[in-house]
# Entry
Amino acid sequence: MRREIPDTDDRHEVLRVITERTRDGSRPGERGDALRVALVIEGGGMRGTISAGMALALHEAGVADAFDAVYGASAGAITGAWLLSGTPEKLTGWAEPAYAKAMIRPVNFWRGRPVVDVRNLVEYLYCEVAPMDFDAVLAHPVEYHPLATDAHTGASTDLRPLLTGPVELRLALRASAALPFLAGPPVELGGRHFYDAGLAESIPYRTALAQGATHVLVLRSRTALTAGAPAGDGVVRPSYGARLVAATALRGYPKALHETYFARPSRLLEDDAFLERQDASVLSVRPALDAPQVGRLTRDGKSLRAALETGRAAIGRLLA
# Structure
């Protein structure tokens, strides 16, 4: 059931536009304004359950058609696809232990296989157990933009031009979430190789703005920044874990990819600072500081259900 969004004078500009489009029954591809409104979804492994709850709440409030494009990074790309799949209610699957166990497989470490098995998630679970309508995603009037990191240039890359069919869409979902070391080698798509979007752009609002978005709603999965404090020169030094990944999983790849990966913590600080300013054209929504803590590899059903509801509640506060 569509939820009435309060018509107040102190709304953020992004929320005002979404409110007016929803009230007027505006549909993607048939707008009465010249604006471009983008939904940006942060990933973070199973922490993406929080932003999935937010996306589900937008659907339940009846405002999803107010957007012209959806940009997703990693788990956020998967959530974006479900939102446009025709069955967005299946976003509740993020809170199902079976969903997590299909992707997070710690025992695989001892078998020499990816601990984060995105291939199994996309090619088996989303094809046979909980089918996603890939054709519906591709045909949806709201543009779908999954992001990934080019393994040879280190550049954040919009995979939309490579989405020529369901097979390519599934590859794009896998590429966007292909964490180095944890998820195995990069994914090949369109003759190129891609790693997880988070290496270059964890919160893809930059790409949305660069492609002409006039208004951006950002769904965050982090309750607070965890990138660490910068050094005296303002640069966050790579952690031991990051250096280990670079020396193993990324060994043999160009220096450009390593530089992008090592710059990730500093980039997160910059993103957080920008999004906290709540620019007139960008509205960022994040879970409450006291929200349940969910990690990238969390599989516990109770924790995941709490995370989903945390996301739902954050959107509820925004709209109310």
Summary: The radius of gyration is 19 Å. Residues 301-319 form the longest helix (19 residues). Confidence is low (pLDDT under 50) at residues 1-8. The CA atoms of residues 184 and 304 lie 24 Å apart.
